[in-house]
Automatic annotation (TrEMBL):
<protein>
    <submittedName>
        <fullName>AraC family transcriptional regulator</fullName>
    </submittedName>
</protein>
<dbReference type="Pfam" id="PF06719">
    <property type="entry name" value="AraC_N"/>
</dbReference>
<keyword id="KW-0238">DNA-binding</keyword>
<keyword id="KW-0805">Transcription regulation</keyword>
<dbReference type="InterPro" id="IPR009594">
    <property type="entry name" value="Tscrpt_reg_HTH_AraC_N"/>
</dbReference>
<feature type="domain" description="HTH araC/xylS-type">
    <location>
        <begin position="204"/>
        <end position="302"/>
    </location>
</feature>
<dbReference type="Pfam" id="PF12833">
    <property type="entry name" value="HTH_18"/>
</dbReference>
<dbReference type="InterPro" id="IPR018062">
    <property type="entry name" value="HTH_AraC-typ_CS"/>
</dbReference>
<keyword id="KW-0804">Transcription</keyword>
<dbReference type="InterPro" id="IPR009057">
    <property type="entry name" value="Homeodomain-like_sf"/>
</dbReference>
<dbReference type="InterPro" id="IPR018060">
    <property type="entry name" value="HTH_AraC"/>
</dbReference>
Amino acid sequence: MGTSVRARQHLEVPERLGELASAMARLTPGDGIHETAIPRVALIRTSRPGEPLVALHQPALCVVAQGAKKVILGDEVYRYAPPQHLVASVDLPVTGQVTHATPAAPYLCFRLDLDPVEIADLMLHAKLPEEPRRNPSRGLFIGDTSASLLDAVLRLVSLLDAPEDIPALATLATREIVYRLLKSEQGWRLKQIASANSQAQRIARAIGWLKEHFAEPLRIEDVAREVHMSTSSLHHHFKAVTAMSPLQYQKRLRLQEARRLLLSGDVDVATAGFRVGYESPSQFGREYSRLFGAPPGRDQRRLRQLGESLAVT
């Protein structure tokens, strides 16, 4: 009986994906990130492959209904297309690139921002067991999208056609999506981040500290003390989750914020470097060029000409 149910659900996935793609194509009149009336939900549409975009990927579920994309974290490449989804459980500096999209069949992605507090609350009320103690895992992963998860996503997206129902029903559909994720094969990765006093949860707190203090000189001892870890343990587990050291993570935050400042047009190159914590303009220029492929001034002019958005989609 169980096998026949799984087989039927597997056959239902393409149908559900088609329904989701049709709804998203109708609800997104043009390319871009379309914020919705439902809190923490966005619909993303792109009509052609784009250039790599470097940005901070916040905790989120990204369900691709059509097209394909790749995300690079450190030296690792994550490629996904229907019927797959991508989950970021913590804030991660990544490079994202849509790899397959056409005007007739654009890249379409449903994004739900994830809240660790909500995940912990759901684990408690749904009586989901915490994961056995184990080393933290990578904070980015790809999973197969089940029919039950797609059903919940479709119910949430359908509320955009009935805005009067959003206050009463959106929270229920959102919690079901998170519940389906937690029950999935990769769900233990989310449980780690939400489990109190787990090593993964401590790393999530360390990431939050670095985001708040990224422009300040980094003393790893301060971060370790803040999250109640030894410096060696912090280094080891931080790299397990983010694929980079705390210093590398801080550097990416600095450079991405500097790029945002340059694109806004409010500051010059020297001021942008100084604001994000660089005391040496030459070091800022070298590290910026290494990450973005061009010196800050030239990159600023190019981005303004292209009108590129730096948001991860």
